[in-house]
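Entry type: protein chain
Record version: 2
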Amino acid sequence: MIEPLLTVVVATCRPDKPFRHHKDWHVLDRIIENCKKQTFRDFELIIVDLLYDYRSSWLGDRWPDLDFPVLHLIDKSSVFRELNLTRICCAKNTGLLYARGKAVVFTDDGQDWSENAFECLAPWARNGAGATCRLHRDRGRGPIEVDSRWMAHKIEGTLRTKVVQADGIGYLGGTLSMVPLEKMIECNGFDEMFDGSRQLEDSDMARRLGAAGLKMALEGHPTVVEYALTECDGRIHRMNVEAKCNGAYIYPIWNENPKRIRANDHALTDEMLDTFMTGECVRLDSDNRCMESRDECKGSWHRRSLMNIYKDQRLVFDLAEMRKKRSWSTVHTDPVLVGDL
């Protein structure tokens, strides 16, 4: 098969329940329907399903004949999977292990995309840039724009674009965001130490991509609407704080959200934060406090050495190395998925 331009990765742990205000929509079916209606066809779809054991035959039963490649699989082995805990980073990284496209499109499962969405993302992928779409939410009264990235850059109207540094978008969430695959490999994917409890992986990923020099287009043409579902699934749990792994960091940002300093909830100690800041900050006083202004820090502090820190802390796995042994044809016997490690 010729490798596609785009690989769409959807990580889900939701049951196949109807949407709150659209009773005829179902989560997994909606993912396929969104892809089927796209005017741009050079893509593949990978659905990483934390509930795969309960619906492994869903794709063949409901969608036996599709004109684009689809891979439906469980997330790879991890300590959080063994504990039956939330693991969004692990799921997204599983998609990256099997992605064959030049760029990867990340999105959430409870959304509706306009038919021109992939068509708008494709030119940026060909040019080696990233792109992210404007997000709206519909809780029953119609779509309401909620994406703070757009307000921060003061882009008015729905038909304008702007290119910014990746860390300038604030987060790389499920808002139909596209990133060159080579950049995701360079950053070693999502930091899986954010799994198990509260996640800040989207903010962390955007800042590491910015440190890697990635430009992101704020793409205003497609419509992306997120809908409320009837319920969440009780089979996937959040981790007790006492069991949370230390290893993931969100460095402090001198802005209106100081809580970003604690990515691991209560598990990060003051000593760990001081160590991380000492290694990052360019100029410190005798008490290891940053002496630079907020504007100075923007340029030097969170880009200069951030990538080196992450390259030295491959705590979970090496994405580039693991990709060498992955294949669509052997995916369902892959030891990293079935857990026979």
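Comment: The CA atoms of residues 192 and 316 lie 7 Å apart.
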